[in-house]
Structure formats: C-alpha cells, structure tokens
Amino acid sequence: MIQYILGFIILALAVGCQVSSTREDAGSSTPQQLVDPKYSIAQDRSELDKLRSSVPEETRRQNDEKALMAELMADLNTPPARVREKFMDLVRKKRELFNKDMTRAREEFNKKERRDREEFTKQQKEVRENFLSSKVSSEKRTDFFNDQDERRRTFSADQRDARDEFEADVREKRKNFEDYAKEKIDEFNELHKDYTLRWNEKNKAQKSSGY
Fold first, then answer.
1. Cβ–Cβ contacts within 10 Å for residue 44, how many?
2. Cβ-based neighbours of 168, under 8 Å, separated by 6 or more
3. pTM reported for the whole predicted model
4. Which residue spans adopt a coiled-coil conformation according to this UniProt entry (predicted)?
5. What is d(CA 5, CA 126) in angstroms, rounded to the nearest whole number?
6. Is the dihedral angle over the CA atoms 78, 46, 39, 33 positive or is it negative?
7. Which end is more exposed in the chain, N or C (fewer Cβ atoms within 10 Å of the end residue's Cβ)?
8. Helix (H, G, I), strand (E, B) or coil at 73
9. Local structure of 209: helix, strand or coil
C-alpha cells in the first residue's frame, strides 16, 4: 500500500512540475535565453546517478531542471540536508564554470588590448623616425606632432570605449547568470520545503509503527 502511495506522490510531483514549468515559462521575467545552456543545472545529471538510482525511469526527464529537482526529492530515502547539499554543489560547480569562462574572456581581451597598443606604438615610432630622418620646416614639424598626438588620443579613446563595452557585457552576463541561479534556488527551496515536511512525516509514521 505504501508503495502505491509513494508512486502516486512521485507521479503527482512530476505532473505538477510540468504544469508549473508551463506557467512560469509564460510569466517568468528571467531572461533565461541569455544564459548559456552549459550553465544549466540539469547539464551534469550523471553526477547524481547514485542518488537518483531508485527513481523510476519514466519520471526522469533528461535535461529538464524541474525534473531534476523532483527526482532528488521523489523517494523520501535521502535526508533533506543531503538533498540540499547535492543541489547546491551542482549550482556551485556551474558558478565555477561561469567564473572560469569570464576569467578566460578577460584574459583574452587584455591580451588583445595590449597587443593592439604595442602595435600602434610601434607604428607611431616608425612613422616618427621616418619623418625625422629628413629635414623639414618648423611648421611641418608642428603639424606632424600635432597629428601624432591626435592619433594617440583617438586610439586611447577607442580602447577605453572597447574596455567599457567589454565590462558592460561581463556585468550583463553575470547578472543574467546570478538571476538564473537565484530563480533555480528559489524553485528548489519551495520543493525542498515540501520534501522536508514529507520526510518528517514519514519518519514519524515509521517510529509510531515500530519500524
């Protein structure tokens, strides 16, 4: 009898998860399409195989985040603290992956910025040496150095603009990721609250029956 009840709970949770997903997809304000799919908390499901081994195959929805949460809390065989630990560990790994990608992007940007600056400085020097190799009037000399100063100011301004654009892009990506992570943690917390209640009720019933 208990097996049938547990089976019904698992089925109801999976169906409820699908309905909730449909509603939230229609009204969610989080721009999930702006978050790279590789940061999805459902991406590394293989790491949870041991914890999910007792969950019926039909309840598993590959690459679905809500299904992953439901599966973590479907059979009442795992302590709530352990379930939370597993989920937060997955979120932590996705955050580490995101930070690693942002660090790599910054390093590449810095290298290109430095390479462009060195190339510009080299070109300016070559042009200047070529100009000074011949005798010119004071007026031409003044015009030449004014032109070099203007080119240097323009180049520096362009690099500042590129840096500002890069930093703005990084901030937007980080905000999108953190908004996404917060949304998933909030969803997990709601399910985990219900799971904890059911876990406590199960343990209480087992103690009352002498098991």
1. 15
2. none
3. 0.65
4. 95-130
5. 83
6. negative
7. N
8. coil
9. helix
Where residue 31 falls (left for φ over 0; alpha for ψ -120 to 50; beta otherwise) is beta
Both structure tokens of 134: 């011949």
The closest of 21, 10, 138, 168 to 2, measured between CA atoms, is 10
Angstrom distance (rounded) from CA 150 to CA 185: 52
Residues 206 and 211: their CA atoms lie apart, in Å, by 5
**CB contact set of 43 (below 8 Å; sequence gap of 6+):** 37, 63, 94
